[in-house]
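Quick one:
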Amino acid sequence: MVLGYLLHAPAVWVFIAACLGVLPLAAYMGEATEHLAHRTGPTIGGLLNATFGNAAELIIALVALRAGLVELVKLSITGSILGNLLLIMGLALIAGGLNRPQLRFNRTNMGMSSGMLALAVVALVFPALYHAIHPEDAARLSELRMSEAVSVILLVTYGLSLLFTLKTHRQLFGGDPHPMEGPVWGVGKAVAILGAATVGVAIESELLVHAATEATEALGLSPVFLGLIVIPIIGNAAEHAAAVVLSRKGQIDLGLQIALGSSTQIALLVAPVLVFASLLMGQDMNLVFTPFEVLALGMATFVTAIITLDGESHWFEGAQLLAVYGMVAAAAFFLS
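Output:
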């Protein structure tokens, strides 16, 4: 913050310092969530971590929207979902499976999350299909209205998913209890630390976005790679650390719930919220994504479903998810 706000240092130095600043904050978020999950169970714990992790990302997107960077925001939405599904889940499976021959987790929870992600992919297909059929500029208003209608449906679906997991079928998502090392924090202390760390991550993330734009331009990286890979990795640093650390400790249900829960929350909550927020800012953001983004999301959802629907996994399946993410990153690097 000193480099960015007071000294106005070169973007590369601000970028590096902000990256380092996010790491301890992410560790606090993971630890606070672990203490909360000990009292609430992995479903609510994963929901809390995904929500607090995505709060920083939502702030980043709102700042970018206000600056008129609509396409960058849309790329970051896609990149965040891909990063959670492939990168975070892959790292979580590797971290949890290195010392265990087999990982077992709640297949009902994974199945519901995979179904919600498939729904999100379908929701993105229709605006893209309409754009392909009516590419003329006169159809832009209809695209926006369709995006608003789809956003309402996604928000309602997300609300119903919360009702399903937290109320009507809560007994299906309890997960196995996990022992804590040392004294358990009180709810007030855990929430306070989680909230303070989230504020810190949001501030650091805003610095990262502004610095990353200049830094990637200096390095010759494309806007597609910046929006699809760089910004989501930065914005999701807290969730990366939390999912990996928790999975390493044997809390694989919570680790995977962070990854899948964050993906579904971005697709069904953050993206629709940004559509309506853009209207208030006069930016008119729609949900028309490129064929590359839609296909990448569809393939990532398919691969994730194959790996998780049986309720069992191992470290090599995590390596396979990382391989898919590497291929997406390589393709994004060469896209202009």
